[in-house]
């Protein structure tokens, strides 16, 4: 009987799983082939909130916190439920634990706090903040970033992470937001590259990468944005972007598109909207584009 059963098990081509009984059934013979072990949770949920409250897995590890998010925090409501003596002892132990933990990671905590605040102000996605936090962690571990230099390292980390993840942010917009000195930030960049083994595979940004940011800041119409993309693609095909600032080229396309569609954004308005940027750079790139693409603009 056992030989016949094993033969049917091998020859069965069509099966169905009965998850309520935990059985794998052959559709051809109706025989139970094997049992199924359910490795999922023992509860059911009907909303994402219920799933989060019942789940026993914590948040994923992150470089944005000095302890990678592994520290367990006890809520004040749970502490208040304890008897008076135990509550007082628990609060004292909690205070000492926090003091010891912070003394060991004081610079790391401060650096990550600045980084998270500035990333939030710049509207950077989580992947950029995670990468920048990784750079900061390596910097602090090497004993760098003391005193005022910490802001320079934060600015350098954020800008390099933006370049790596191809998120369009200008160098000057980052250092102005962080409030760091330009020379110190460039020095910090060199040190981070040195820490990373002398190589960071940053992706080269193109003029079209800056178009959404520019159109949003200037409030340009959809037709102007479409023309900017067409101009940016033409610039890339003709290799006009080699050795040129991609944001200056994108700003020049914004000036051309706004002039053609009568939205009247002058070069100074565009330069001031982009931060520490000169209208001279926009003017030079504008002349190159209209000359090489044979565009006629009525100003």
UniProtKB/TrEMBL annotation:
Pfam families xref list: TFIIB
UniProt-listed InterPro entries: Cyclin-like_dom (IPR013763), Cyclin-like_sf (IPR036915), TFIIB (IPR000812), TFIIB_cyclin (IPR013150)
GO biological processes: transcription preinitiation complex assembly
SMART domains the record matches: CYCLIN (SM00385)
GO cellular component, one term: transcription preinitiation complex
One of the record's GO molecular function terms: TBP-class protein binding
UniProt keyword annotations, A-Z: Transcription, Transcription regulation
SUPFAM superfamilies recorded: Cyclin-like, Zinc beta-ribbon
Residue ranges constituting the Cyclin-like domain according to the UniProt record: 113-194, 209-291
Protein name (Swiss-Prot/TrEMBL): Cyclin-like domain-containing protein
Organism, scientific name: Fervidicoccus fontis
Lineage, top ranks: Archaea, Thermoproteota, Thermoprotei, Fervidicoccales, Fervidicoccaceae
């Amino acid at each position: 009987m056992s030989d016949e059963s094993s033969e049917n098990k091998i020859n069965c081509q069509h099966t169905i799983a009965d998850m309520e009984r935990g059985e794998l059934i052959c559709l051809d013979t109706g025989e139970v082939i094997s049992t199924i072990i359910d490795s999922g949770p023992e509860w059911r949920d009907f909303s994402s909130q219920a799933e989060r409250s019942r789940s026993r897995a914590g948040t994923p590890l992150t470089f944005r916190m000095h302890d990678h998010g592994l520290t367990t925090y006890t809520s004040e409501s749970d502490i208040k439920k304890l008897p008076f003596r135990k509550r007082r002892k628990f609060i004292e132990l909690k205070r000492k634990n926090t003091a010891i933990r912070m003394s060991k990671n004081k610079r790391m905590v401060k650096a990550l706090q600045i980084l998270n605040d500035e990333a939030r102000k710049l509207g950077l996605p989580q992947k950029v903040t995670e990468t920048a936090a990784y750079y900061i962690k390596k910097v602090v571990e090497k004993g760098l970033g003391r005193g005022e230099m910490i802001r320079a390292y934060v600015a350098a980390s954020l800008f390099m992470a933006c370049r790596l993840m191809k998120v369009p942010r200008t160098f000057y917009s980052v250092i102005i937001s962080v409030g760091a000195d330009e020379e110190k930030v460039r020095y910090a960049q060199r040190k981070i590259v040195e820490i990373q083994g002398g190589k960071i595979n940053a992706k080269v940004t193109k003029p079209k990468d800056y178009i959404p940011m520019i159109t949003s800041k200037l409030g340009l119409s959809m037709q102007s944005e479409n023309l900017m993309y067409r101009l940016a693609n033409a610039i890339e095909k003709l290799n006009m972007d080699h050795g040129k600032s991609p944001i200056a080229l994108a700003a020049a396309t914004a000036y051309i598109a706004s002039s053609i569609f009568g939205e009247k954004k002058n070069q100074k308005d565009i330069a001031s909207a982009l931060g520490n940027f000169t209208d001279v750079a926009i003017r030079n790139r504008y002349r190159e584009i209209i000359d090489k693409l044979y565009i006629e603009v009525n100003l």
